[in-house]
Amino acid sequence: MSFSSEVKEELSRQTDSARHCRIAFLTALFHMAPVLTEDTIGIRTDIGNAANAFAAVLKKVVSAPVREERRPRGKSCEVTITVSGKDEVRSLLEAMKFGTTPNSPMQSETEIRATLPSRLILQKTCCRKAYLRGVFLMTGSVSDPSKSYHLEIVFQREEDARMVVSLMESLGFGAKVSTRKGRFVVYLKESEQISDVLGAMGATGSLMKLENKRILRDIAGKINRQVNFESANLRKTGVTSKRQTEDIEFIEKTIGLSSLSASLRQAAQLRISMPDASLQELSDASEPHVGKSGINHRLKRLEIMADELRRGNRENM
């Protein structure tokens, strides 16, 4: 099971204790996949977790029996969750603010999808979190945090996407909107905000998994950076050591190491005997002892001397 599927499985088991939060959750799913006639109300979707969650919450809100119908559709299964009865239909529509008066005309399924949910449904912070959980169950996804950080919710209408961005901003999340294949994608890419969103929706178990994977990924990244840094230093040290060795061998062939001062001869002999050693290792091996900076200074003087010899200029040595 993917990490995204685990998150949805956990969210589908969440149930709010307050009726207004339950109504906000039902409104999110009903708005995106409504089934509505004069005596039937519910949703139709092939998202199993969303259907299961809708049914569980609906049973806590209505007194009428909740019906469930499943119909195979290709590799997926279309699920219809409904309750019947004109009174139940009218009561639920009024609760979700899609029909606020007994005599108002009933909206069609198309009109439900094209109408933004009432702000009255989203007045409380807890209700906004419940609504967000509903839309995420329907069209949301989150990447495996061991690979990347990306959470998104996809909408067919830009108005719905902008509304959810505003809702998320009210909860402290800086979501953005992009388009993909004619759809509108609300997304987050920062690991900390994704963790906070999972927590706000109630996926605390998934939040802990994300944090654990994020910590492991960060540790692995630091180790890789350290290894790369050390490898680069080793490569740099190897190139420098090879050049220094070549310079000293050139000096030996042209004027001989015996012509050098005692301090330069010591540095030259150390490098020849320890071609792969670092400056610190050369310093530790020097006798009498010479500091790291002293070794470096003497090797640079040998490099200058070799360059002068190659140019045939012995007067400046």
For the structure shown, list the relevant keywords.
14% strand; 4-stranded antiparallel beta sheet; 57% helix; single chain; Endonuclease I-creI; 317 residues; alpha+beta
**Strands ordered across the widest β-sheet:** 1-2-4-3
Total number of strands: 8
User: Which second-level CATH architecture of the largest domain applies?
Assistant: Roll
CATH class category label of the largest domain: Alpha Beta
Class by helix and strand content? alpha+beta
The main pleated sheet reads as: 4 strands, antiparallel
Helix content: 55-70%
Which radius of gyration do the C-alpha atoms yield? Answer: 35 Å
Overall pLDDT, averaged?
88
Report the CATH superfamily of the largest domain.
Homing endonucleases
Order of helices and strands: HHEEHEEHHHEEHEEHHHHH
Low-confidence stretches: none
Structure, explained:
This protein is of the alpha+beta class and 317 residues long. The chain has twelve helices and eight strands. The protein has helices spanning 3-12, 19-32, 48-61, 86-95, 109-114, 125-139, 158-170, 191-201, 204-254, 262-273, 279-285, 292-310; strands at 34-37, 40-45, 67-73, 76-84, 140-142, 151-155, 176-180, 183-188. The strands form two sheets. The protein has a four-stranded antiparallel β-sheet. It has a four-stranded antiparallel β-sheet with strand order 5-6-8-7. Helix 8 (191-201) packs antiparallel against helix 9 (204-254), helix 9 (204-254) crosses helix 12 (292-310) and helix 10 crosses helix 12. The longest helix is centred in the C-terminal third of the chain and has 51 residues, at 204-254. The model has no long low-confidence stretch (mean pLDDT 88).
